[in-house]
UniProtKB/TrEMBL annotation:
Domain Gfo/Idh/MocA-like oxidoreductase N-terminal positions: 6-120
Domain of life: Bacteria
Protein name: Gfo/Idh/MocA family oxidoreductase
Entry-linked InterPro entries: Gfo/Idh/MocA-like_OxRdtase_N, Gfo/Idh/MocA_Oxidoreductase, GFO_IDH_MocA-like_dom, NAD(P)-bd_dom_sf
Record domain GFO/IDH/MocA-like oxidoreductase: where: 131-256
């Protein structure tokens, strides 16, 4: 089988989730790993049997590299994606698409101009539970979706920020809890709700990490969609453990609850299990989910068959629009609340 040549830029925390999948894929070959800290790149190149580099621009001169994975800090996603797309490289970028709405707009434009594809990693859309929930919504079996809510209560200790200087800063992370951790749940809420965002109320605060970060660690929002669906959201990095994300969807004739990745159906006063994922992640990183492999393989399938990948710059940018909608709403909310410690630009 002819293999699609791949490179990964950024050999940090998420790197392995990409490299391991590429290593196991018959149709792809990891040729190069790049990190500005070349010792990291060399270490991973040795583990995966490929070349190491410290300057991603070397990829532009490599016709054998067709797909590039971006596992770099948020503020580097847009400039790297734009340059690679202009050179005809397919780009699979980790979330968020960019660190600001303006940068996201440039990525959208670069993707539209390019002959290559851009995909955004929102792997939780590939979770069995998420797929099952979408099926129920689309089937109409429970009637119309009325409202939904999502709660994310996770823990990020000060060291998470102090060990990596790009985190916790507006200029490099582009925000805090919302743009980095809860963007996955916000993405699912808007994907399930299905309409355009019409109104957002909400606020962000820094409840426990104020001595370490300039961004938020806690947020809430009330989001109204054009189809009448309302979503409520609460998220924090100030919990002392990473609890499984909780979701609830209320329909005209029943409800769905997601707890510990298991989806329960509530109908006529009875609760039944609708979906128990066959694979569940374990260990400290279990809150990332198990679906990186599914998304990466799907992206390559589309690239190899010349089909358009669905989680593209438009679709993958929606969650960032929502994140920034909450930041804007918070600016308004906190400016009328004396003593509010919310977002300031
Ligand atoms: N999908 C998920 O569930 C998930 C989980 C964790 C992280 N992420 C995302 O992955 C991305 C990376 O996050 P991380 O936690 O791995 O960060 P990290 O800081 O652990 O790793 C980033 C790596 O990029 C390297 N780097 C920085 N500048 C570079 C440059 N100019 N050229 C090449 N390499 C450079 C750094 O040296 C570092 O090794 C972020 O977008 C983050 O939001 C996604």
């Amino acid at each position: 089988m002819d293999k699609t040549g791949a490179a990964v830029i950024g050999c940090g925390t998420i790197f392995d989730q990409h490299a391991r999948v590429l290593h196991d894929m018959e149709e792809a070959e990891l040729l190069l790993v790049v990190d500005s800290e070349v010792t990291k790149a060399r270490r991973e190149a040795e583990r995966y049997g490929c070349e190491a580099g410290s300057d991603y621009r070397a990829i532009l001169e490599r016709p054998d590299i067709e797909v590039v994975h971006l596992c770099t800090p948020h503020h580097l996603h847009a400039p790297m994606a734009e340059e690679l797309l202009a050179a005809g490289k397919h780009v699979l970028t980790e979330k968020p698409i960019a660190h600001t709405p303006k940068a996201a707009e440039s990525v959208r434009a670069a993707a539209a101009r390019s002959s290559a594809q851009l995909g955004v990693v929102f792997q939780n859309r590939y979770n069995e539970s998420s797929r099952r929930i979408r099926e129920v919504i689309e089937s109409g079996h429970l009637g119309r979706l009325l409202c939904l809510k999502g709660a994310v209560t996770w823990s990020r200790p000060p060291e998470y920020y102090t060990e990596n200087d790009w985190r916790g800063r507006w200029a490099t992370e582009g925000g805090g809890l919302l743009i980095n951790q809860t963007i996955h749940t916000l993405d699912l809420l808007q994907w399930f709700a299905g309409g355009e965002i019409e109104r957002i109320a909400g606020s962000v605060t820094t409840d426990t990490l104020g001595d370490y970060i300039e961004v938020e660690d806690t947020a809430h929002a009330c989001i109204d969609f054009s189809n009448g669906v309302r979503a409520l959201f609460y998220g924090t990095n100030a919990y002392l453990t990473n609890s499984p994300v909780e979701l609830e969807l209320i329909f005209e004739q029943g409800a769905l609850l997601q707890r510990r990745d298991i989806v329960y159906l509530l109908q006529d006063g009875e609760e039944t299990e609708l979906c128990r994922p066959s694979q569940t992640a374990t260990g400290a990183k279990s809150y990332w989910g198990v679906s990186h492999g599914l998304l990466i393989r799907d992206f390559y399938r589309h690239v190899r068959e010349g089909r358009h990948f669905w989680l593209d710059a438009e679709e993958g940018g929606r969650a960032l629009d929502l994140v920034h909608g909450i930041y804007s709403a918070s600016r308004i909310a906190t400016s009328i609340m004396p003593g509010g410690r919310g977002y300031s630009s």
